[in-house]
Amino acid sequence: MTTGCATPAFRCEGGPSPGGLPAAYRRGPAHPSIPLVIRQSARYHEPVTTFWIQGLLLGLGAAVPIGPVNLEIMRRGLRGGFLPAFLTGLGAATIDTLYCIAAMLGFGALTALGGVGPVLPFVGAAVIFVLGAMTLRDALRPLPVQPPAVGGTAIGVRSYATGLLMTATNPVTLAFWLSVGAAANRVSVASMAERMAFVGGVAVGAIGWVIGFSLALHFIRHRISDRSRRLLTAAGGFMLVGFAVWMLAKAWLETGA
Question: Does the global pTM surpass 0.85?
């Protein structure tokens, strides 16, 4: 009776060994004593919900910090209510999700986006500066007695496009996804269900924040005075202009101009 393995491919724990084990059971370089097929399938023991939660936290991490996009959401929410604010944030969440997918495809795909690095900060600074100037202009104007109805196609398209453009041209966003690329790249070797759960978590986290923030702004704007709204808008405008100047100065110094 055979009590050990007939092949030295791996060590058995005293059980009988079938003859001619398939090539999948050969030893791998990382763990010589563990069959390759076992090591390949071990990662699937991690629940899919774990990948979803990881993506959810990552999406919140990308969406929650105060930056140009949240300041623009605040401006549109205080002036126009939920829909303009939400659509602006939805545009930003779209770019975050696409960057996540690029990072998951590997550093090469995301680094290729970084190839426009010398130009991106200047474009982003120009976009944010213009939006900052528009925010300061809004701070000087009182709300109309009968504000125009929101929900039109033109307003929705402009709001969504603004979120897309602000996030896509913001080098800080690209740097964030490059910095977490290692975590996303790990997911690239997972199963399709795990990858979909991870990306879905990122989208839910980012969009969930946008919905909550936009709803809060929608209700707050009816409960604060016009003077308070204008002060908050002005503060956001100065922060946007300051962020644009910082981006431009940083890009100028890095290019050695």
Answer: no
